[in-house]
Specification:
Blueprint lengths: L14 H19 L12 E6 L5 H12 L3 E6 L11 H10 L4 E6 L4 H8 L3 E7 L5 H15 L7 E5 L6 H12 L3 E5 L15 E3 L2 H4 L5 E4 L15 H8 L3 H4 L7 E3 L12 H4 L6 H19 L5
Parallel strand pairs: 1-2, 1-3, 3-4, 5-6, 5-8, 6-7, 8-9
Helix pairs in contact: 1-5, 1-11, 2-11, 3-4, 5-6, 5-11
The protein binds phosphoric acid mono(formamide)ester (CP).
Phosphoric acid mono(formamide)ester binds next to helix 2.
Length: 307
């Protein structure tokens, strides 16, 4: 079991805790690969997915994981809940406690919302993505996918994260998680899409994808978050693709065994060419399947399970 109530980010998760989740996820992956879609790991537990922002992968992945492990699973969208009548996040959480909830998976547009909820409810809170802060389970499934590909030891693995780093909670969680495992990280982005003082996290920074991708083991594209571009941070989408798009010819500059990753949803031919996204090096859909195993492991361990 994990000696913590909540999973709010990888910044405050220890390396040992990360390895515990990733190790348990290996066993969960074996279960789902065997074709077994019903286990007893979470019999009698109630899981609620509480999403204030849209989602396809994260929400479905948590709900699939909960149902495979025989939890009762309820899905709440803010747009169809009493949030629309003015109920606060804390009051919503207290009511979910009163409804015998064991795990709340929260996605929210405000950075820090899961931390606020976690301080006020009895249930375990899992951050399903908060604003521009963190998306810890996405990074855990990304790291799981890299370990499947390159072995458990990621020290020295050359990882390039390319795209809209400024708005990306996925990038932040990967930076925290991969740094703890000793990977060599380079973030590549136009200067307008880089957070201030990103270098202080220890990553290398570049605005030249053609140079940075050379010899990389992992190339991770980030979605251009068109909905968060309230300032004119990009000259144009076509110019972005020309300088920062991940294409077959750019992938050819990476290591011969390099893999292409992307958290989704993918803007085809904006941050990644369709051909690269569907190519042999792409692990984009494998990441999605691995997300089920990682979320099974996390919920099981938070609910007191051990392997
Ligand atoms: N990767 C990810 O968070 O996708 P969704 O927004 O579809 O959940």
């Amino acid at each position: 079991m994990l000696k913590r109530k909540d999973l709010l980010g990888l910044r405050d998760l220890s390396k040992d805790e990360m390895l515990q989740i990733l190790g348990t996820a290996v066993e969960m992956k074996e279960i789902i690969e065997s074709g077994n879609k019903k286990t007893g790991h979470l019999v009698g537990k109630n899981v609620v997915t509480l999403f204030y922002e849209n989602s396809t992968r994260t929400r479905t992945s948590f709900e699939t994981a909960a149902k495979i492990m025989s939890a009762n699973c309820t899905s709440i969208s803010a747009s169809a809940s009493s949030v629309q009548k003015g109920e606060t996040l804390i009051d919503t959480g207290l009511n979910l406690d009163a409804l015998l909830t064991d795990v709340i998976v929260l996605r929210h547009s405000m950075s820090g919302a899961p931390h606020l909820l976690a301080r006020n409810v009895r249930a375990s809170v899992i951050n399903g993505g908060d604003g521009m802060n963190e998306h810890p389970t996405q990074a855990l499934l990304d790291i799981f996918t890299m370990r499947e590909e390159f072995g458990d030891e990621l020290r020295g693995l050359k990882v390039v994260i390319a795209g809209d780093v400024k708005h990306s909670r996925v990038a932040r969680s990967n930076i925290w998680g991969l740094s703890k495992l000793g990977a060599e990280l380079t973030v590549v982005s136009p200067r307008t899409l880089l957070p201030l003082e990103i270098e202080k996290t220890g990553v290398k920074v570049s605005d030249n994808l053609d140079e940075a991708i050379s010899g990389a083991n992992v190339v991770m594209g980030l979605r251009v978050q068109l909905e968060r571009q309230n300032a004119s941070l990009l000259p144009s989408v076509s110019e972005y693709m020309r300088f920062y798009g991940i294409t077959d010819s750019r992938m050819a500059k990476a290591d011969a065994q390099a893999i292409l990753m992307h958290p989704g949803p993918l803007n085809r031919n904006v941050e990644v060419s369709s051909s690269a996204a569907d190519g042999d090096n792409s692990r984009i859909l494998k990441q999605v399947t691995n997300g089920v195993a990682v979320r099974m492991a996390l919920m099981y361990l938070l609910c007191g399970g051990s392997v």
